[in-house]
Amino acid sequence: MSKHSPADQAPIPTAPVPPAHWAASYEEEPTQASTPPQANGMTALKPFGWAKDNLFNTPLNTALTVACLFLLWLVVPPMANWLLLNASWSGSSEACREAAGACWSVIAVKHRLIFFGTYPYDEQWRPFLACALFVAMLGASGVRAFWRPWLAVAWALTLVGMGVLMWGGVAGLTYVPNDRWGGLPITLMLSVFSIALAFPLSILLALGRQSSLPAIRTFCVGFIEAMRGVPLVSVLFMASVMFPLFLPEGVTVDKLLRALAGMTLFTAAYLAEAVRGGLQAIPKGQYEAADALGLSYWQKTMLIVLPQALRIVIPPIVNQFISAFKDTSLVTIVGLYDLLTAATVATTDPEWRPYFAEVYVFAGLMFWIFCFSMSRYSQWLERLANRYTRR
Amino acid sequence: MTNPVQALNSARVRGWLYQALFLACTLAVAWYLVSNTLTNLATRGVATGFGFLHREAGFEIGESLLPYSASDTYLTALVVGLLNTLAVSAAGVVLATVLGVLIGIGRLSSNWMVNRFATLYVETVRNVPLLLQLVVWYTILNRLPSPREALEVLPGIFLSNRGMKFPVLVEHAGHGWILLALLAGIAAAIAVVRYGRRRRETTGKPFPTLPAVIAALLLPPALAFIVTGAPLAFDVPALAGFNFEGGGSVTPEFTALLIGLSVYTAGFIAEIVRSGILAVPHGQTEAGLALGLSPGKILRLVILPQALRVIVPPLTSQYLNLTKNSSLAVAIGYPDLVSVSNTSANQTGQVVEAVAMMMVVYLIISLAISGFMNWYNRRVALVTR
């Protein structure tokens, strides 16, 4: 990794050039910023001019460019050969053994196991439909024009529809108990439900942390700091092992629900800190104005403070969503069948055992697509939020 | 306070009332949960308390910094787990910082290619779950050739599915003296820095601190090395039968965890470093240039002190995250604290005690790291009136 980083090992021959890391990092920032206007028309006409400005403008940069090109030459041809040119795209594992490249047939054979786990094979159109519905709703919720009350209704209907699809037992669908669920639906549902349940809880915790009542404040600070101080793995262990102990005898809670409870409490603590950031960003005058109008605490909070604070914290909440999505992979440790568990199970098939890399690349790509689009979305939101403050 | 109805209108009285209600509810819930737990434990025949810590653990631990065997107590086992957690976290923090700073600077490079490479790294690493990355590293390391066909990456360093083998220095009486000389050198270096600063502050004359410090650090150990007869013998690992003999070794579990944690956290540290450096206004650089400072001095005296102020708080939380993430070790079989506590809890049934101890230990580690970083943060904080 250090090969393409502007480490300070390269010599600097000419006098006016500042030291290596300095030159590469900060000093030339403005040069880069001022390049686009002049290079606007030049980029298409004169690629050499662009290369001279961006790749070979100083001896250090020339050295770095050459190093990067060397790295590319080392990595790209073998990768391309493995990924595409020599890959085997379909057929049996024997065909893969003869091919020199990646064995994508393992994905062709195992993709339903990776996506849907042990869900009954003939019924797998149901989780597929549920996931498609879910992703469509997630996409729709990202569009600003749809931020209307009916979106909540649509979500409620979607969740009911998903429940019907996944469990079945009505409308001629066979019943599938939730210990047969697995793969992508588990990952999606755990992340969305944990954040949806954690969000109201986190607002209460953040308000409690800012409260003037010592007992409530102490409780909230204690909860938030304790949750943030311990790893999610231990919270999940606690949820899966200690939850049954907490409940009266004879009452059992499903494994999935226990993990969901653990994830919710954990996410709530982190979200609460994000919300607190928003609460603290509201100017004190807003609180005082509300008090001067004679509003009660809850009127002040619901009408003045939260509407402003929550708008500020939308980007951090989306970031928290990304971590929650990635963190769902941890439920594999307490024995739930999420996307990562399904991928790992797919690699243990003796016939396809040598092709673990392909399976993990595929699973990683799934996670990456979701997380990357969410992080892009959060950057867009941030620009949207700053649109008003910039003027 | 005239009558009860009027008293209810007082914000203070209502505050007390709410708090009393809240406390009562919390206590009721807590009592309900505790009584349920006690009943459940009693029906399962589990005795509560920490007495189990002094019983024999009876399980082996793959790797340990202390001498440990299955006949040791649970307490020893947990300490071994804790030390393993600390070892991998400490190494990970160092590696992740080095890698993260390099990539963060790369993200700011005016070189288009370096910039793209660093961006590619950050966007890939941050958007794939750590657990998946760990599993991939572990699978790769586990499917390396057996020791007989081990890869010799560097002369004397062998990679195989049993982990990494590397040469270690053979102990010699002279090493103590070299270490002593190094300590003396460090003391001299501190003295030189103090003298240099005092001279600059009183007379305004610069003092060549850096060369003097390097000399103070290098010369005494080098001298001791020559005087004691250059004791430089290595114990190189050699293949004997089915495995290597001699040399030091790291298990595949440790290596996978270390690589995974460092690579993942470096992606986050890179972004912190980048935003920290960007947070210093360009006018600061120009002001430094106008004062006639050399670019190196501008970086060292103007940019870095201001950037560090922005960088340190989020960096602390990344260090904490790395330490907490090291608990994912349980997924690849590295015997860290979580994994050992888990085994102990499964064997003894003392779930509550094991989980409580685990949480307390992590809380202490978190508080210690954030305490240290807060102290450092105060040191670099802007001194205002």
User: Helix fraction of chain A?
Assistant: over 70%
* Largest β-sheet summary of chain A: none
Distance N to C terminus of chain B: 45 Å
How many helices of chain B? The count is: 13
Sketch the topology of chain B as an H/E string, one letter per element.
HHHHHEEEEHHEEEEHHHHHH
- The assigned CATH architecture of the largest domain in chain B is Orthogonal Bundle
Compile the SSE list and pairings:
The complex is a heterodimer of chains A (391) and B (385).
Chain A: H1 20-27, H2 29-39, H3 42-45, H4 47-54, H5 59-85, H6 93-98, H7 105-116, H8 125-142, H9 149-167, H10 184-210, H11 214-229, H12 232-246, H13 255-281, H14 284-292, H15 297-312, H16 314-327, H17 339-347, H18 356-390
Helix pairs in contact in A: 7-17, 8-9, 10-11, 10-13, 10-16, 11-13, 12-13, 13-15, 13-16, 14-15, 16-18, 17-18
Chain B: H1 4-7, H2 11-44, H3 74-108, H4 112-126, H5 130-142, E1 151-154, E2 157-160, E3 163-166, E4 168-169, H6 174-203, H7 209-227, E5 234-235, E6 238-240, E7 243-245, E8 248-250, H8 252-278, H9 282-290, H10 295-325, H11 329-332, H12 337-348, H13 351-380
Antiparallel strand pairs in B: 1-2, 2-3, 3-8, 4-5, 6-7
Task: Name some characteristics of this structure.
heterodimer; A: 391 residues; mainly alpha; 72% helix; B: 385 residues; alpha+beta; 3 domains; two-stranded antiparallel ribbon; 68% helix; globular
Description:
- The complex is a heterodimer of chains A (391) and B (385).
- Among the domains of chain A are: 2-77, no CATH class; 184-322, MetI-like fold (Orthogonal Bundle), CATH 1.10.3720.
- In chain A, 72% of the residues lie in helices and 0% in strands.
- Chain A is built from 18 helices and no strands.
- Chain B is built from 13 helices and eight strands.
- The mean pLDDT of chain B is 82.
- Helices cover 68% and strands 6% of the residues of chain B.
- In chain B, the strands form three sheets. Chain B has a four-stranded antiparallel sheet.
- With 385 residues, chain B is of the alpha+beta class.
- In chain B, α3 (74-108) runs antiparallel to α4.
- Chain B folds into three domains: 4-44; 74-164 and 251-380, MetI-like (MetI-like fold), CATH 1.10.3720.10; 175-227.
- Chains A and B meet through α1, α2, α5, α11 and α12 of A and α2, α3, α4, α5 and α8 of B.
